[in-house]
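User: Please run a holo structure prediction.
Assistant: Happy to. Please share the sequence and the ligand.
User: Here you go; the ligand is D-glutamic acid.
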Amino acid sequence: MSHSDLSQNPIGIFDSGIGGLTVANAIHKQLPNENFIYFGDTAHLPYGDKSADAIRYYSIKISKFLLDQGCKMIVIACNSASSASYEILLDFFKDKALFVNVVDPLVDHVISNKYNKVGVIATKATTNSNVYKSKIESKDQSIAVAQLATPLLVPMIEEGFHHDDISHSIIGKYLSDPTLKNIQALLLACTHYPLIKNQIEAYFDHKIDVLDSTDVVLLKIKELLDKHQLYNKGEVKDPVFYVSDYTKSFEETTNVFYTQKVSLIEKSIW
Ligand code: DGL
């Protein structure tokens, strides 16, 4: 299917909240000619503690909203939503836009690196879905995948506790879990964790690969825009940032994840 008539249309990016701004920030920097619309479902966060069915319901509604805005591509920036909803979003909407999730590019990266054992840290929704384990093991059975839910890391990062005693002890407590013994790589499978990547690398004395999905997701987005001739060659507009529930505190916290000042606009889509 040719999408070339849609090239000037925006990329839609969605997340449970504002953590997905890490992905939006990378798109903004690496694809400065693209228009994008962000949607953070702050009314329903955290997705990490929700059932797969609830996350699917939210993801369908949000995707429909982004498609109504004419999005040519939808990036599911949230790991919990990528785990629960990617397949159902393809079933519903694959003829309307391109979809990118944050799981598959990282899975492919792991496969190409031929590790013996990798660890995955993520929300409960992501670890319960077993998505990384099943996708990696279905492509290469020789790679063992150890999953660990690390739910305290999200509020810790949002509250600004990085690089201090609190983050040091929480990270140490989680990463010393025996399930992660002998891993050669650790996958940071959550929007928020790139912000503590340095601390995690330091915890492992830089002896293992600590991987987040940002760069590989960007490569995937570029590959698809190229393949479908969807690069924007027209006007570049300011990005728009929608949330389903506005608070000043959400707006202030955006500066943890996005390098420029963000103004959030409340949008009720339910
Ligand atoms: N965005 C979520 C993820 O990447 C983390 C925050 C949440 O649980 O809503 O899984």
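The two ends are 31 Å apart (CA to CA).
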